[in-house]
Design a protein that fits this description.
Layout lengths: L1 H15 L11 E6 L4 E6 L4 H5 L9 H10 L13 H11 L3 E14 L2 E19 L1
Antiparallel strand pairs: 1-2, 2-4, 3-4
Length: 134
């Protein structure tokens, strides 16, 4: 049930933060390969940095925005009292020995072996792409 909650949280963000603001193709993709134990979610929405720039305008880059959404209670839907979703996702991944690779803009967040690492991605990922290995 925690894997489902993880997928739901990430997938629901595609709609919560992008309705009416898609860069081109509206909607999200969900793919599941049970044999290889991998789930992929993607959207062509605004992406992490643009979403939270409404409440945190001084972000320097996509990597900083990624760090913020995975470590701070902040929501691109302010003034709504939200902003725990990706912190919850990180907790589920760490506590259940899963692997999450999350791309947005020029940033990658990898969570595996109980650690989180954020780094630069030379390729631009509009919206987001999440890969969950379980």
């Amino acid at each position: 049930f925690l894997l489902l909650a993880l997928v739901d949280e990430i997938g629901n963000n595609s709609f919560d933060h992008n309705l009416g603001n898609w860069i081109d193709t509206a909607g999200a993709v969900l793919a599941h390969d049970e044999k290889n134990r991998i789930i992929i979610l993607a959207d062509r929405g605004q992406g992490v940095r643009k979403t939270i720039s409404k409440v945190r305008a001084n972000l320097k880059n996509d990597e900083e925005a990624m760090r913020v959404v995975f470590t701070e209670i902040i929501s691109g839907r302010a003034p709504e009292k939200r902003g725990n979703g990706l912190k919850f996702a990180k907790k589920v991944v760490i506590e259940n020995n899963l692997v999450l690779t999350y791309f947005s803009g020029h940033a990658i967040c990898e969570i595996f072996n109980g650690k989180m690492e954020i780094k630069h991605n030379d390729n631009l990922i509009p919206g987001m792409l999440a890969i969950i290995k379980y």
